[in-house]
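Re: the request from the purification team.
They wanted to know what the chain is likely to look like in 3D before they choose a buffer screen. I agreed to run a prediction and write the result into the notebook, where they can find it.
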Amino acid sequence: MRVPISARIEADRVVLDDGAALLADVVVLGVGVTPRTSLAEAAGLSVERGVVVDERLRTSRPEIYAAGDIAAYPDERSGQRVRIEHFAVAVRQGQAVARAMLGDQTAFRDVPFFWSAHYDVTIGYVGHAEQWDRVRERGNLESGQYVSAFERGGKVLAVVSIGDDKSSLEAEAALQVGDEAKLAALVAG
């Protein structure tokens, strides 16, 4: 699935690269970030979209750990290396690194999440999906109660909720333990 991107912003619209125009009074532009990896590169660490770490957040030099926005770690659910830019993930990874440095051999498997509150609307995102082949939905945006699940190969990778914090929490718990039935039920109603 190819998503059109913005080609230009005009006074009253955003024109996409496929020629479609979206009317807009206000445009919020998220430009993203690029991790600063020069120190890691100078230290000879493996770098690919961030500092490459293993399941215990060790770099290519096992005596050096990385956590937070810069750490590109293996996501068990998607099978991809991911880099999550959210403070809650950074805090959890920092705690996992401290445990690992004290000898704990447990892999970091916390499910990434974030939320955003916009006046009386809360948006939650649990999991991580850079690619998907199916989106299943429950509810609708107009009602303020909406949940969607992003799947690849029949497996839910991420869940988005609007106005439904309970579903976000249930999705996080289900993703953490791989409860496919619970994940399917979240979007079934």
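For the purification team: Residues 38-101 form a domain with the FAD/NAD(P)-binding domain fold (CATH 3.50.50.60).
Please add any questions underneath this entry.
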